[in-house]
Specification:
The protein is an alpha+beta fold. It has 17 helices and 17 strands.
Length: about 575
């Protein structure tokens, strides 16, 4: 390939929708076969004293990515992308990056090995397909032998800059067949900013401080006592409305990263529409981390709230810009649960929370129970309010950029019983292949045709999802109704043998338990959120072809209780 060379005008301004971004691209005149995973681990580190923590504290940056836009046998281009808070802060953010890059070249072998170990741990937790993707794009973990060379090359490499913002109108240029609003130019070099505090790199020599435990204990459920490993799970009793889940994430980012550096994990996520905090590690680390977590959530500065609000807005925008059916799936959990607005100046974080210790011994349970007495909200109150009955509206509209018609129909249980839950799982298994065959293969209504058992926001049901470029949402709804009516004939002919074969598939799926520590505890926690326990083999054996057909007919007749989500285009 012909060699790349820096252009005379190597700095480009680009007008594009979305958050303002700065891309710093370094041209290295040699192939890079290792060190990228380590470089990304260092870039994305969010522990106190890291580059990202510094940029966030100064309200300069909300996120970062490491990209590999070009690689040949002779050259490599490595790009650092920063998601800026304000487009005008690009030079200040770049100055901190240059100072950080200079410090990377002075990392010790021990420090590089520490971050390489974190990168390997992250890689091992990925699904197999994601591991293959990482390997294909050069981000598989490797030894840190080449990382010292890579870090030294970055500081001296030719640099081009790309500023992305939607505010400044620019000339329309034709670039390799694309019409872009951009302006090439050349700007003065940005000098490293050495005025701030020095960056901190791990392993940190100081162990976490052991807090003084309060005398009072809060009620803390303890499951699987004396089993290992121990995982503490914390969740709001009523789910956090947007943007408070993202605010919690923003507040705990540095603490979670510091916990990972010491061999533990502090994860904040929203599985099935429930916000959940999970903490695991050695006992001393769990205790010290929980003490810090209490203090951080008790006092959330306005800057962190603003950061969480920006992240919530970006996530919603990303859903709107995504494939339309994904936008509706992202909106479904919020649709299935009532909103709980705090009164009297409270925030959603001050409302009651639930806590459970999964595994661990009695001493760890005692220590965590003491610390939870200082959590900024009541933990495990004796009286638990029953969830409000939510009556679905006729239709929920979700804005998307796609002009195609999309429909989600979520059919909740017609009664809160184990028999109904078992029947719903069986019906979803029976519907699934026939629904795809008739609507996708035979009728070809579009490329999204899905039917499955679905759980979100503590509710169980059967979910139908359709996306079509040539049918309306009303026509899609009619196709689902017609399919369910047709299923009367098929289910009436269902034999006991065929039903039992389907039951065995359901039982096999139930036995698939995640192997990771956090994943396994989260799976048990999600099952506990359901109002009805998981059906066992006895519950499934109690169903007959006649009773399954009766439940199907009740689902067909209970359309007024179904949740319908449709899209409307932004254009």
């Amino acid at each position: 390939l012909p060699a790349l060379a820096p252009a005379a005008e190597c700095d480009i301004a680009l007008q594009l929708n979305g958050a303002p971004r700065l891309r710093l691209s370094f041209l290295l005149n040699q192939p890079i076969d290792g060190g990228l995973a380590l470089l990304r681990q260092l870039l994305l580190d969010e522990a106190a004293g890291s580059l990202m923590a510094s940029l966030r504290e100064q309200e300069l940056c909300d996120g970062a990515r490491l990209l590999l836009p070009y690689r040949s046998a002779q050259q490599t281009v490595i790009t650092l992308e920063l998601v800026l808070v304000e487009a005008g802060d690009a030079d200040r953010a770049e100055a901190r990056v240059h100072h950080w890059l200079a410090q990377l070249a002075r990392l010790t072998t021990t420090q590089r090995a520490h971050y390489a170990q974190l990168a390997s741990r992250h890689f091992a937790q990925l699904p197999v397909m994601d591991q293959l993707r990482e390997s294909a794009f050069g981000f598989a973990p490797a030894g840190d032998d080449e990382s010292a060379i890579l870090f030294a090359l970055l500081s001296a490499a030719p640099l081009s800059r790309l500023w992305i913002a939607d505010s400044t109108p620019l000339d329309q240029l034709d670039v390799q067949g694309w019409t872009l609003a951009c302006q090439p130019g050349e700007r003065a070099p940005v000098q490293p900013d050495t005025s701030g505090e020095a960056f901190v790199f791990f392993p940190h020599p100081l162990p976490p401080a052991i807090p003084t435990l309060p005398a009072r204990q809060t009620p803390l459920a303890h499951h699987r006592c004396d089993e290992s490993p121990a995982v503490l799970l914390l969740s709001p009793e009523n789910n956090l409305p947007a943007p408070w889940g993202q605010i919690v994430q923003a507040r705990l980012r540095a603490l979670a990263a510091g916990c990972a550096h010491r061999g533990g994990e502090l994860a904040i996520g929203c599985p099935q529409g429930h916000w959940l905090i999970q903490l695991q590690g050695e006992a001393a680390l769990m205790v010290s981390t929980l003490a810090s977590l209490n203090a951080l959530l008790a006092d959330i500065p306005p800057g962190v709230i603003a950061r969480g609000e920006r992240e919530s807005l970006r996530q919603r925008q990303a859903l709107h810009d995504d494939i339309a059916v994904r936008a509706l799936l992202g909106a479904l959990p919020e649709t299935l649960q009532p909103l709980h607005n705090p009164a009297g100046g409270q925030t959603p974080l001050n409302l009651p929370w639930r806590a459970v210790l999964d595994g661990g011994d009695h001493e760890l349970h005692r220590q965590l129970a003491c610390l939870l007495s200082t959590f900024p909200a009541a933990i495990n109150p004796a009286v638990r309010a029953l969830p409000d009955v939510l009556h679905p509206k006729a239709e929920y509209r979700v804005a998307t950029r796609s002009p195609e018609a999309v429909l989600l129909r979520f059919c909740p249980l017609v009664e809160e019983s184990t028999a109904c839950l078992a029947a719903w799982q069986l019906l979803a298994m029976i519907y699934q292949p026939l629904f795809f065959q008739r609507l996708r293969v035979e009728q070809n209504i579009g490329y999204v045709v899905s039917c499955r058992f679905y759980q979100a926001a503590g509710r169980s049901g059967i979910l139908f999802a359709l996306q079509s470029p040539h049918l309306t949402t009303a026509e899609l709804a009619a196709r689902i109704d017609h399919f369910l009516v047709q299923m009367n004939t098929g289910l009436a002919a269902l034999s006991p043998q065929a039903l039992w074969e389907t039951c065995q598939i359901v039982l096999k799926e139930q036995q698939q338990v995640p192997t990771g520590r956090l994943e396994a505890s989260r799976d048990r926690w999600l099952r506990a959120q359901q109002m009805i326990p998981q059906p066992n083999i006895t519950d499934l054996q109690a169903l007959t072809p006649d009773s399954v057909l009766a439940f199907h007919q009740r689902l067909l007749a209970d359309g007024r209780h179904a949740f319908y989500l449709v899209n409307h285009s932004l254009f």
